[in-house]
Amino acid sequence: MATANPTVPSAGPLLGSRSFLSKLKDGDEIARLITFLFAASVVLITVLLVYELWMNSVLPRHKFGLSFFVTQVWDPVMDQFGALPFIYGTVVTSAVALLIAIPLGIGASIFLAELAPPRISDTLQFFIDLLAAVPSVIYGVLGIFIVVPLMRTVIYPALNKPFGYLPIFKGPSYGVGFLTAGIVLAIMVIPYIISVSREVLLSVPRDQREAALALGSTRWESTWKVVVPFARTGIMGSIFLALARALGETMAVTMVIGNSPKISASLFAPGYSIAAVIANEFTEATGDLYLQALIELGLVLFLLTFVLNGLARLLIVVTTQKGSGKGNQ
Amino acid sequence: MQASSKPGPSVHITPTAGVTGAKEHAAPAPMRMTISKVNFYYGSKQILFDVNMGIADKRVTALIGPSGCGKSTLLRTLNRMHETVTTSRLEGEILLDQQNILSQDVTALRRRVGMVFQRPNPFPKSIFENVAYGPRINGFKGPIADVVEKSLRHAALWEEVKDHLHKSAYELSGGQQQRLCIARALAVEPEVLLLDEPCSALDPISTAKIEELLVDLKNLTTIAIVTHNMQQAARVSDFTAFLLTGQLVEFSPTPQLFTTPGDPKTEAYITGRFG
Amino acid sequence: MSARLRWRKFLSNFMLTMTGVCAFVSVAILFLILGYLVFNGGKSINWAFFTKLPKPVGETGGGMANAIVGSAKLLLASSLFGVPIGFLGGIYLAEFSGAGVASVVRYAADLLNGVPSIVIGIFAYSIAVLPFKHFSTLAGAFALGLMMIPITLRSTEEFLGAVPRMLREGAMALGASKWKTITTVIVPAAYRGILTAILLALARVAGETAPLLFTALGNLYWSHGWGQPTASLPVMIYTYAQSPYEDWHRQAWAAGLVLLGLILIINILARTILSRGIAVPRG
Predict the structure, then answer these.
(1) Which of 6-25 (C) contact A at CB < 8 A?
(2) pLDDT digits over B94-153, tens only?
(3) Does residue C5 surpass a pLDDT of 60?
(4) How many Cβ contacts (< 8 angstroms) between chains A and C?
(5) Residue B54 backbone phi and psi in degrees, to 5
(6) Quick one: how far is CA A165 from the chain centroid?
(7) Domain definitions of chain B by residue range
(8) Are A282 and C130 in contact (CB under 8 A)?
(9) Gap between the Cα atoms of B259 and B271, Å rounded
(10) Lowest mean pLDDT among A14-18, A83-87, A191-195
């Protein structure tokens, strides 16, 4: 609102036709500058984060290079660090989680989007959103006191007796392990699959379903063969999102995976995940190489979730755009 | 099939030359579907009031009327599509070949009474798969490719797509997509084909193509078409039903309705259009 | 009806029922969780829980007073750090910036949002613990604040952007400067949505454990000021649940109930505010 003061000696036009100083007297310019600084700080923080991860993992990167990713040994005493057991554990638990969560989640989202009347659908979605708000550590508590005993008393006998000859079901169970962690993770990621899939299913144009019904399809056929395929990209996106969540999940997994840096074929065996080993050993790490090896693991985790989240977002955007009209002209 | 001359003030609409059933003494064609005492409600709001008419076998019947008159609603009752809205309620009787469609299995009914929608809505599949969908789910055992070709020919689309059958349906133009939807509907060999303003989203050339198509199709299947375009109704149909605020005002052979309408309201509607 | 049609109809009814089962199971899990917490935690909540400090290992009794205060301090400090950055940054995106800068900032925020919380902990460690050579409440607040930034930023931008043109133009036509328009018209119009987002962000970080493991660490006693390590509810739950002591297990359930209760209340509150207020901008 201030007008340029003609008696202020101009320091030369720095930003446009008025001098920087006189512009600064203008409230709007100050506001712009200040808010810009805050916005810029977000970018700065993010860049700094990547930078710190990179710089603080220099020792193991130079010492082990790419073999870090394929070495099984994790021996702090001998200064030997290999990421393979943790990558294995992270992948296995996430895979188990998805195997359980995908059918349940997609099934539930179909119910919410296609069958349930809007009020019920919204109410149930509200509860699902609350489920997503439950903190990880509480899932861990439930994992320890409910899933672990359940594993020992019900699930292990049910799977091991009939199928114990299969490598994945071999061996004893201590309650904790890959399968337990996978089950807990599944419960944690189901809400993500449900909310996103429900939304993309709801965005499928009505007349796709009607066209299928008008050809003499049953309700299930119209849903499964037409509506769901129409939304398949977005549903894939929800799965990637769930996977990204599962990979980075720390507390619940740490509490039920058994914390053993070993690779085993059996789902009942204890294992370790990237996030879990960082959580458990970071404050105990003696020596720079040890600490930096853990940080390098953090870098790996960061990169994995970065790629997955990016893909997920792309897929979800593409589907909801498709539903809003592009497909019909 | 020639299209009528361009609309303008005081044009005289000539009925289609293909109407064989509607002679001066109007021998009634047999009715494939009969609509008796139909009242229709969305919740507590009544949309259709005591509608009584028929859909003549192997003829084109047009439903016309101003926006909101209930013509689309009426059309959708004929294959029970209204049931996708939970608050809808239908009273009365609708017969297909003398049997009440309301007491039959709805999935089986919809195979017999097909529908083409206002906006083209092909499935996110290839052209081939779109047409093959209907026969496949109904358990068709023979060579699917033959059925697909036959349907695409009937829809006057075969020549344009025969070398591209595995391309996505979305690569077709709007008019082609609508013809694809017609082919898709024809693939299950329906006894009646319902078209709900099939050309309203299309350009004039595509519209003309589809109108030509419809006149040929009636040899294959009985047709009922909703249209807001009176010239289209006059060009294409054998019988016309005029609806106003949910009531059937007049139902006559097309030439008669457009030249000597029985009801003053009908006359007002059709002359209002042409000025 | 043919046999094939009968089968198709049967399959349709069966599969659709199964989807209902899936939905039921998913929602039932929530109630199961709540049920267990209320049942197991409820019996262990007593006055001592809220007022006493933890007893040494092995002794029974004791409470989590320091953890409760610690969590409160952490939440307060993290909001003071994260919310202004997100809020003012969001104002910049919505009101001042060009499209290019905006997409860079948004991208950075989304990236930050997707970083696993343990990695946030590592980052906070290297920035706020390492240089000072000790763990502290502030370091923990820094880590949690980082997690609040993206949610606050995106929501501020979204809700400000949803304020109708007419409102803005009305103010500017009266001679108000851009900043005045923002503070007196636009922000008040969007405050419900922004407040909701802040509450949801708070609820999210209230339960976070991983970022605190190497920043605020833990403390068996009161933490004085902001420079000392502090106990917090999530970390206590984590420690106690994994211990072999029955008494600590009880307390872990109680703490879990308190924590979840808090988080759910904030969530429900936030969503109610939102649904009663200005329409949520879609897409």
Answers:
(1) 8-9, 11-13, 15-16, 18-23, 25
(2) 999 999 999 999 999 999 999 999 999 999 999 999 999 999 998 888 899 999 999 999
(3) yes
(4) 264
(5) -140, 160
(6) 34
(7) 31-122+193-274
(8) no
(9) 10
(10) A14-18
Structure tokens at B6: 């361009």
Half-sphere exposure of A106 (CA within 13 A, CB side): 19
> Rounded to 5 degrees, what are φ and ψ at B240?
-130, 135
Compute the count of residue pairs across chains B and C with CB atoms less than 8 Å apart. Answer: 10
Residue B151: partners with Cβ closer than 8 Å, 6 or more residues away: B131, B183, B184, B186, B187
Residues of C in contact with A294 (CB under 8 A): 122
Angle between helices A118-133 and A178-202 (to 10 degrees): 140
* Residue C86, token pair as written in the block: 């997100």
Domain A65-328, CATH: 1.10.3720.10
Contact across the interface for B81 and A212, Cβ inside 8 Å = no
Residue B34 C-beta-side C-alpha neighbours within 13 Å: 11
| CA A124 from centre of chain | 23
Is B252 in a helix, a strand, or coil? strand
The answer to whether B15 faces chain A, any CB pair under 8 Å, is no
Domains located in chain C, CATH noted: 67-276 (1.10.3720.10)
CA distance A165 to chain C (A): 30
Nearest CA in chain A to B188: A215
| Length reported for chain C | 283
Written as one string, the DSSP assignment of A48-104 is HHHHHHHHTTHHHHHHHGGGGGT---EETTTTEE--HHHHHHHHHHHHHHHHHHHHH
- Both structure tokens of B188: 């299950």
Contact A234, A316 (CB under 8 A): yes
In Å, what is the CA distance from C8 to each residue of B101, B109, B131, B172, B235? 20, 14, 20, 32, 41
Query: What spatial distance separates the first Cα and last Cα of chain A, rounded to whole Å?
Result: 49
CB contact under 8 A, B114 and A221: no
**Stated pTM of the model:** 0.84
Residue A191 pLDDT exceeds 50 = yes
Q: Give CA–CA dist B61/B29, Å, rounded.
A: 11
Local structure of A96: helix, strand or coil: helix
The dihedrals phi and psi of C125, each to the nearest 5 degrees, come to -60, -45
Tokens for A41, please give them: 């700080």
Contact B108 C1 (CB under 8 A): yes
* A220 CB within 8 Å of a chain B CB: no
- CA distance linking residue C196 with residue B123, whole number of Å: 40
The domains of chain A are located at: 65-328
**Whole-number Å distance between alpha carbons of C213 and C143:** 10
Task: Check whether C279 has a pLDDT greater than 50.
Answer: no
Half-sphere exposure of C138 (CA within 13 A, CB side): 12
Q: Alpha-carbon distance B252 to B21, whole Å? A: 12
Query: Which residues lie across from B51 on neighbouring strands?
Result: B38
Cβ(A301)–Cβ(A178) below 8 Å:
no
Angle at B66 between CA B60 and CA B69, to 5 degrees: 85
What letter would DSSP give residue A5?
A: -
Mean pLDDT of the A280-291 span? 90
* Three-state DSSP string of B224-249: EEECCCHHHHHHHCCEEEEEECCEEE
CATH of region B31-122+193-274, choose from 3.40.50.300, 3.40.50.2000, 3.40.50.12280, 3.90.400.10: 3.40.50.300
The mean pLDDT of B261-273, rounded to a whole number, is 85
One-letter amino acid identity for A147? Answer: V
Instruction: Let me know: does A246 contact A93? Beta carbons within 8 Å.
Output: yes
Q: Compute the Cα dihedral for A99, A105, A110, A116 and give only its sign.
A: positive
Beta carbons within 8 Å of A201's beta carbon, 6+ residues apart: A109, A110, A113, A114, A227, A228, A231, A235
Please tell me the predicted confidence (pLDDT) of residue A329. 37
- At position A22, the amino acid (one-letter code) is S
Rounded CA-CA distance B23/A91 in Å is 77
